[in-house]
Amino acid sequence: MKKIVFYSALGMLIGGLAASCSNKLTTTTNTMTTGNVTGSAKGIEQADWGEADGKKVYLYTLTNANGVQVKISNYGGTITSWTTPDNKGNNSSIVLGFDQLQGYLDKPPYFGATIGRYGNRIANGKFSLEGNNYQLATNDGKNHLHGGSKGFDKVVWDANLLVKNYPSLTLNYLSKDGEEGYPGNLKVTVTFTLSDDNEVTIDYTAETDKATPVNLTNHSYFNLTGDISNTILNHSLMINASRYTPVDETLIPTGELKSVKGTPFDFTKATTVGARIDQVQGGYDHNWVLNRKGKSMDLVATLSDPMSGRTLQVYTAEPGLQFYSGNFLDGSITTGGKAINKHSAMCLETQHFPDSPNKTNFPTTTLRPGEKYGTTTKYKVMVNK
Ligand code: GLA
Questions:
Q1: What pTM did the predictor assign?
Q2: Which of 168, 164, 195 is nearest to 379 (CA)?
C-alpha cells in the first residue's frame, strides 16, 4: 500500500515537472522516463512538433512495458500512431496518421482526432434548448458534423503528463460560449492512458455554464494489417447491437431504432466487413444501438484481422457506436508514400446517437450547469501467434 502511495506521489511530481517543462520547452526533445517509478511503465516522451494558432504543438510518445507505443499530439487531441507487433513479431501502426504536423494542418478527415463538441451530425445545424434556438456551423452540406468548421480536432489543447501506474496524458480545452454556435463555456479534459495490457483508455470529462449538447469521441481509423495498401474488407467484425439507427440520404437518423436481423447491419456474430458491404449504399456509416445499459464500460465490438493475427476490442460506457468503413477515402491523401484509398481503414467511434438534440426518443446529450459529463472508452489490442 505504502509503495503505491509513494509511487503515485512520485508520479505526480514527475507529472508536475513535465507540465511545467512543457510550458518552457525550447529544446527539440525532452525525454522523461519513469524508470523506477513503477518498474512497469517505460514512460512518456515529449517532442516539439511545430506550432498552430500561435501555440506550441507537441507529440507525446507513451510506451508500455511490452514496447507498445502510442503517439498523441495536443493538436486536436490526435492519436497519430499505435505501434504493436503482429503474429510474426513485426511492429507496425494499426491506425492511420502522419508523422508531421503538416499532415493534420491540411485537414484530413479527422484522422485519430478527438471529436467535439458534438461527434457526428446535427440536422441543419439547428437545435433548441431551454426555449432558445441555436444555429451551429454547417460544414457537411446543410448539416453540422463533428463540432463544425473548427471542432476540437483542429484546436491546440493544453497538456499535462502523469506517470502513475501507467503513462497517461491529459489534455484540457476551454471551448468558449458561442464557439461554432454552441451555448456555454465548456471545460473539457481528455485523458489517454496506455496500460501494460496494450489497452488505450480514453476518459472524457466536461463541465458547462449553460445547457449545451455534448458528445465526445475519438476518430481513429484502424487497419489491423498495419499496412494501408490492404483494405479492411477482410477484417472480421462483431458489434454487440441488435438495433441500429437508419439514416436519410444526408446521413441524419430517421429516428427509428431498427432491428439488424436479416440485414447487412447484423454483426451480432463476427462477419467480414466486406461480406455484405455492397448491399449498403455508400458503405457502412451508421450508428449501432449497443446492447448495454448503465455507466460502466462493456465490451461492445471486436475486430480481427486473420493476416496479422491482431484483434482489437472496443469497450465503452456510451450507448452507440458509429462504424464507418472509410467510404469517403479516395486516394487523394497519402501517408508514408502510400495513397489512402476507399476502405483503407475504418472507424469504430463510441458515441451518443447522431442528431440526438433533435430526437426526443434518443438518450439525451444535454449537459447542464452543475452536472459533470464523464465517459470512458477503451481500445485493446491482442495478437494471436
Ligand atoms: C464520420 C462520419 C462520416 C464521415 C467521417 C469523416 O465517421 O459518420 O460520414 O464524415 O466521419 O469523413
A1: 0.90
A2: 195
